Amino acid sequence: MLLTTPVISSLKKNYPDAKIDVLLYQDTIPILSENPEINALYGIKNKKAKASEKNCQLFSSHQGITCQ
Predict the structure, then answer these.
(1) What local confidence, expressed as pLDDT, does residue 49 receive?
(2) Which of 52, 24, 25, 20 is nearest to 38 (CA)?
(3) Might you give the EC number(s) for this enzyme (predicted)?
(4) By CB neighbour count within 10 A (0-12 exposed, 13-18 middle, 19+ buried), where does 47 fall?
(5) Would 43 disulfide with which of 13, 26, 28, 52, CB 3.0-4.6 Å?
(6) Which three-class secondary structure state does DSSP give residue 28?
(7) Contact 24/1 with Cβ under 8 angstroms?
(8) CA–CA–CA angle 9, 15, 21 (5° rounding)
(9) Given a cut of 60, is residue 64 above it in pLDDT?
(10) CA of 53: how far to CAs of 10, 16, 28, 66, 68, in Å?
(11) Domain extents for the chain?
């Protein structure tokens, strides 16, 4: 997760108006919670969740998609 910080900084430097959202495990949210370059953090409860469940959690917050 710590290696993500330089990537986020580089994105903001090159795209200053970009809104950066991060999908991560809930127990790692504190690592990035104070980063001012991040617009929103979305935590996944279960590390064993299927990729489709993780994607649904992320996209439902942006597109009004309902997960079933």
Answers:
(1) 64
(2) 20
(3) 2.4.1.-
(4) exposed
(5) 26
(6) helix
(7) yes
(8) 65
(9) no
(10) 29, 30, 18, 11, 9
(11) 4-63
Handedness of CA 62, 66, 26, 7 (dihedral sign): negative
Tens digits of residue pLDDT in 10-56: 999 999 999 999 988 889 999 999 999 999 998 887 666 666 666 66
Percent helix, strand, coil in the chain (nearest 5)?
A: 45, 15, 40
At 61, phi and psi to the nearest 5?
-75, -20
CA-based nearest residue to 18, from 37, 35, 4: 37
